[in-house]
Amino acid sequence: MKTKLHKPNPFSIYRALSRGFEQVMPSGVTVTMRIINIGDYMRRGEIPSNLQEIGVRLAKTQDDPSVSVSNAEVQAVKDWIVSAALIEPRVTIDPAAADDQTLYVEELPLTDREAIFQAASQNIREAVQTLSPLSTTPEPFVS
Q1: Domain range spanning residue 124?
Q2: Quick check: 34 and 20 in contact, CB under 8 A?
Q3: pTM (2 decimals)?
Q4: Is residue 21 part of a domain?
Q5: CA pair distance 41, 38, nearest whole angstrom
């Protein structure tokens, strides 16, 4: 008698990813995070305008060497993505909003923040190019 294997239901996979999954960070700490869809955050107006502007400039730097973005600006965008992706622990980019239940993003080791950013931001360039008036021909995202 052969056992019939069931293929995973894509609906349940997507639902599970949106609810979050555990990931072990380089520091050894296990966090619960989600892969974010930056385009959804942009359409809902949930990204601070200063970070949207930096994101558009970041996308533009691929085609225009005269456009520059500072390392601090890049880190600010990454830190926002980390705060959006982490479910547990809760993280904020506003130091005044940190408390016993919420960490300020800079309290996380930089290696952990980079790992969270890499895992959570797989579709950022594509989303920024799609919504950016500065980009007329979106290129496929390649990681």
Answers
A1: 35-131
A2: yes
A3: 0.72
A4: no
A5: 5
- DSSP 8-class letter at 95: G
Q: Name 73's bridge partners.
A: none
What is the tally of structural domains in the chain?
1
Give the pLDDT confidence of 61-102 residue by residue, as tens digits: 888 889 899 999 999 999 999 999 999 999 999 999 999 999
Instruction: Evaluate the CA torsion angle 110, 42, 138, 68 in order and state its sign.
Output: negative
Q: What is the DSSP string of 124-143?
A: HHHHHHHH-TT-SSPPPP--
Kindly state the tokens that stand for 18. Answer: 């949106």
Domain annotation covers residue 79: yes
In total, the chain counts a number of residues equal to 143
Q: Give tens-digit pLDDT for 38-68.
A: 778 888 888 888 888 898 888 888 888 898 9
| H-helix segments, the chain | 10-19, 38-43, 49-61, 71-85, 110-120, 124-131
Count CB atoms within 10 A of the CB of residue 23: 17
Structural contact between residues 142 and 62, judged by C-beta atoms closer than 8 angstroms: no
70 burial level (CB within 10 Å; 0-12, 13-18, 19+): exposed
